[in-house]
Amino acid sequence: MSGEQLLSGVERIKQQSDGLRGQLAAELAQRTTHVSDESAQLLKFHGTYQQEDRDRRRAQRGTDAEPAHQFMVRCKIPGGVLSGPQYLVIDELADRYGNGTLRVTTRQGNQFHGVLKGDLKATIRAVNDALVTTLGACGDVVRNVVSCPAPLSGGLREQVLSVARRLSDHLLPRTGAYHEIWLDGEQVAGGPPESEPIYGTRYLPRKFKVAFAFPDDNCCDVHSNDLGFLVVQEGGQLLGCNVLVGGGMGKTHGKEDTYPRLADMLGFAATEQVVEVAEAVVKVQRDHGNRGDRRHARLKYLLDKEGLDWFRKQVERQLGRRLAPAADIEVSGIAGTTMQDALGFDLARWLVKRLPGKVEIAWDDFDDERALGAVWPRLMPLLEEDTLAEANIPWRKWLESAQGNSSKSPAWLIDRFAALPLSEAEKGRLYDSLHMPIRWRLENSRISRTRNSRPVAQVFYHDGPLIPRPDVSLAAELGRRPPALRRLSRSKGESIMDLIREVMLVRYRELYGTTLGDPRSVVHAEVGRGVSIHLWNLPAERRLPLRAYVAGLTLKNGAPINYIEAIGLFEWIEVGFNTFYTFRGGEVAWTFAQVLRCLCHFTGATCISMYPYQLGHNNEEAIESGAFWFYRKLGFRPGRADLLRLVEREEARIARNPKYRTPSRTLRRLAEGHAFYELPGEEAGAWDRFSTRNIGLQVNRRMAAEFGGSLAHFQNASVRSLAKVLRTRTPADDMLRKSFENFALVAALIPDLRSWSTMEKEDLLQVIRAKSGTDEMHYLHLLQAHGRLRDAMLRVGSEV
User: Fold this and answer.
1) Measured by CB atoms within 10 angstroms of the end CB, which terminus of the chain is less buried, N or C?
2) Looking at the DSSP assignment, which residues form a beta bridge with residue 724?
3) pLDDT tens-digit profile of 468-495?
4) How far apart (Å, rounded) are the C-alpha atoms in residues 717 and 698?
């Protein structure tokens, strides 16, 4: 600031307030319903806003009645964490002094409304008696420090919350005015002048927002804060945070010189440095922020005016040392960021259409020239003049010449692959052989995790405790009436397919069934507590050779919380259940039970198998979380006898010593095999040793032994044999023929097939036809009705 005349009116009030005292004490003692405008500005720093009852204002319009003033009181709660007794006090105060409502703010605070002036002091004092404060909840200071509120106790979350609380306490105003006015403190007459070492006499130019977030959980939108801390951890231990500055989403309507802005990366602060780095950033804003125009007083405008390099130097001057560079951590899917991956053909084709003009080939990260030389001559005439005889081929020049421009977009390439006279699967395999890195800009797209949710007709609000795992009985849930599964229209099915691709893309995940789902097959169930589950199958041309495939997505109040994969034969399904980090803990066991209810109803399955990966096989995250015990305590059992004995020994140890914890090495061993859950009436252990891989390996051994490894000879012989047994012709339709060929290979392993009854053979033919039919679940249900085929394939698939 260069002169007093540049100060806004609010700045003068702060400067002349004597440490936020002003005339507050005197005016609060007056028998009036409100305070002066100057005092109303100072009240904000103490955590309260003077407001007018709008309902009464409308009723009093045209009269001489005095405005009906009331006050909002806001609690400052770092991380949004209150103890049970603290919450009960605040809840009671809302009734005693407020209008009976208690509001939870987007920044994890609580607000009472309708407090009368005469009750302000009692309200704020009662809040402090509960060891909560209102100081700094409003006003031009650091507001409530927020962090991700997922209900996960202990470990990294607690470490981050501890740092957030220390930072919040450190950045509270030091003025004694708060205690004097609200808590009956006494000012020391004639003592040394009061010091505000961080804020000074004018405090900050505007409010200042601070947030902590995790690379895989940006629930508080860290990029939209003045100061953000992005957690850096190793092995569950907090190492520090990457520091972001200059975010803010505010914009004044009709004022084009005001705008939202995403934060910039400033550097790295070790855990013990977070508080001092925060103080340094605040002081730079204090000294250089705009105090003449409150519309431009937020930190983001200072960053845009002076630049990030200048700002970093000012922070380092405050610190007296250099800031460490930001740590290299993976952050995916946040609005305003850029992502890169070698996507499969189908997902890349979808993305180019979904984000036109925002997708490009990442040439700087591409080095597989051999793949280009093998594939691109299919698309570009005379390219083999280079690929077969030359080195240092200018690949980009060839591409630019062929597509007629210098665009980096992969759109032309993808279109040319799509036009090749190949099946969709073959096009995909050919494109995927390039391992082409694709880079895309999310900007403010709906695809980003920041905006990746869907509106709901009615939001579910939890008015009681969450349902913990011990309160969930799979037997009881699966014994309930099946959920109503409603098939969606083609257009709504397409919308769900778009949503699951978006959800997976921004998390760097690409599954066969989430990319290639059939929009005509999507079913939907509302299972309660704001949870909706969508399931779907694959289109006929992309199905697996033998097993039926189901994929799914679960939404909670319109927000994606997990994805599902289930693959099976007959009454058996292997299930993958993957909950996004933000939503782990909480009601994940109850949600899992609802997913199984839907899957069992949709597929008809009565034997559920969990992949070893879900239990922790080659999955250290699952080992750290004790995933095996999550499923075991829900009733799953290991399919291998040696692992069942091991888990029973572990359970005996836990029974003797409740503090005992299974070592990681034991958990890794327990995760080596599948875990099973059988519904009542299902043959226990029947599927313990089964794997379709075993069927495939036996087919290949037979091909090697009897046909010299020739697939064509083996396939032709098997097809002729099966057609003769079933008294049918080889199908002419391509997809039906492929299904017939696959089952023919398996049928060659069934020695008594010729002795099956005519009905059993006719039913087998119906199964084969259904495999390439319109409804994949019809295929699975036909399998379940064919007992003899089930026994034969179960026997073959159980032989190692």
Assistant:
1) C
2) none
3) 999 999 999 999 999 999 999 999 999 9
4) 16
The answer to whether residues 344 and 515 touch, using CB atoms and an 8 Å cutoff, is: yes
∠ Cα 93 98 102 (to 5°): 70
Contacts of 594 (CB under 8 A, 6+ apart): 477, 483, 527, 528, 531, 533
- For 202, the token pair is 């004018």
Contact 522, 534 (CB under 8 A): yes
Nearest Cα to Cα of residue 336 among 259, 408, 264, 438? 264
- Closest to 18 measured CA to CA, from 177, 145, 228, 227: 177
The DSSP bridge pattern shows strands 210-213 and 227-234 to be parallel
- CA end-to-end span of the chain, whole Å? 80
Other residues' Cβ atoms within 10 Å of the Cβ of residue 73: 28
The answer to whether the CB of 258 falls within 8 A of the CB of 250 is yes
pLDDT digit string, tens, across residues 384-425: 999 999 999 999 999 999 999 999 999 999 999 999 999 999
Give the pLDDT confidence score for residue 680 in this predicted structure: 94
Record the tokens describing residue 704, joined without a space. Answer: 């090697």
More confident residue, 703 or 236: 703
Burial 611-647 (b: 16+ CB within 10 A, else e): bbebbbbebeebbebebbbbbbebbbbbbbeebbebb
Neighbours of 532 (CB within 10 A): 18
Res 256 pLDDT > 90: no
CA dihedral 183, 188, 192, 198 (to 10 degrees): 0
Between CA 699 and CA 707 the distance in angstroms is: 11
Alpha-helix runs per DSSP H in 616-710: 620-625, 627-633, 641-656, 664-670, 692-707
Q: How far apart are CA 566 and CA 780, in angstroms?
A: 12
Placement of tokens 């599927």 in the chain: 687
Region 629-637 average pLDDT: 97
Using the structure block, give the residue that is written with the tokens 């100072």: 42
CB-based burial, 337-370: b 16+ in 10 Å, e otherwise: bebebbbbbbbbbbbbebbeebbbbbeeebeeee
Q: Determine the 3-state secondary structure of 70 from DSSP.
A: strand
Neighbours of 147 (CB within 10 A): 27
The per-residue pLDDT of the chain, averaged, comes to 93
Burial group, residue 188, by CB count within 10 angstroms (0-12, 13-18, 19+): exposed
pTM exceeding 0.85:
no
Quick check: 297 and 250 in contact, CB under 8 A?
no
φ and ψ of 763, to 5 deg: -65, -35
Q: What is the reported pLDDT for 189? A: 37
The residue length of the chain stands at 800
The set of residues, in sequence order, having a beta carbon less than 8 Å from that of 495 and lying 6+ positions away, is none
Find out whether 347 and 424 touch, Cβ atoms under 8 Å: no
Strand partners, 359: 440
**CA–CA gap between residue 37 and residue 27 (Å, rounded):** 11
Distance CA 656, CA 190 (A): 67
Model confidence band, residue 458 (pLDDT cutoffs 50, 70, 90): very high
Q: Rg of the chain's alpha carbons, rounded to an integer?
A: 33
Query: What's the confidence (pLDDT) of residue 62?
Result: 65
Phi/psi-derived region of residue 775, left when phi > 0, alpha when psi is between -120 and 50, beta in every other case: beta
Lowest mean pLDDT among 206-210, 251-255, 472-476: 251-255
Residue 188 has pLDDT above 60, yes or no: no
